[in-house]
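Before the break, one more example. Copy the sequence into your notebook; we will annotate it together after we see the structure.
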Amino acid sequence: MSYRFSSKISLASTKISTVYRVTDTIGTTYALKELKVSLLTKKKKLQKAALNEYKNAKLLRGHPNILRYDTFWKFGPYICFQLEYLPGGSLERYIQENPLHDTGNRCEKEIVWHFLRDLLMGLDYIHKKNIVHMDIKPSNILISLRPGTSIPLLKIGDFGLSRQLDSKSTCEGFKRGDGRYLAPELLESKAEITTAVDIFSLGITVFEMATDYTANEALWSDIKNEKITYDKVSKELKGVLGLMLCKTPEIRTTAGNCLLINNRLQELASSNDDFIEINDQTVSRIEEMEESTSSSSSSDYPNVIGEKSLIYEPIRRKLF
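Here is what the structure looks like once it is written out:
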């Protein structure tokens, strides 16, 4: 991969992947998510999951509250995603370094409402595309710059567990996300998967963000059994969280409804200068540009790592 990038610095690592900060030969910085070869060679399902991740992320590109996936490629046992690089890191780290609970007034700081608006707008767009993220949590939310203000902009990332909704979307055989943020219905194998699972996960994320609580098994149990108290958030936020953390998925609120029924969120959404609606025509133009860029023969992209010659495969070609 050295022919594409002049530098490569490790940022984070999980059991499945490692994320690097990379700089290409003209000085542009990206994030590179590289799936671990040892797992890919043993588990073909991971290769299919990687392709699914890119397909879903590609449908969502262009929204300001969603991490941009630029390119996906496979060569030999390697699978990589080239992503938008956001130097602010994750929301998880941000709230550790910048507590968002106002201890003096025993409520959330104003910035929580800006962050909630960002996440609701991102999720609303995801759900309108008939996609469920399935793994909403602070470590999968990234910090970017918000034009014209010092308040950061949040972007939803990591679509590794995301899936398209259809009439057969059940929990059976589903790989579950982080148990601390898991919607309770996902524990039932034959339960239907709906966009409501993301709303519950977002509710726990916002609760953790707005208070000095840390998400853990005990907190999840209290929330699931509706034993949680909201004495550390404002009455207004309590109302929103109550709708998001409803135990029954059929009556749980939606991202769009939250934006409509809460006056503060309405005001923030209407004053959102950084939002640009991405319609089907815009997506088509993006795909046309990719098509023209990817029309070159794969032999135009030679690479040598060690003694093996690896060929870059344009993203619109069949990968598996």
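The radius of gyration is 20 Å. Confidence is low (pLDDT under 50) at residues 273-283, 289-320. Try to locate both features in your own notes.
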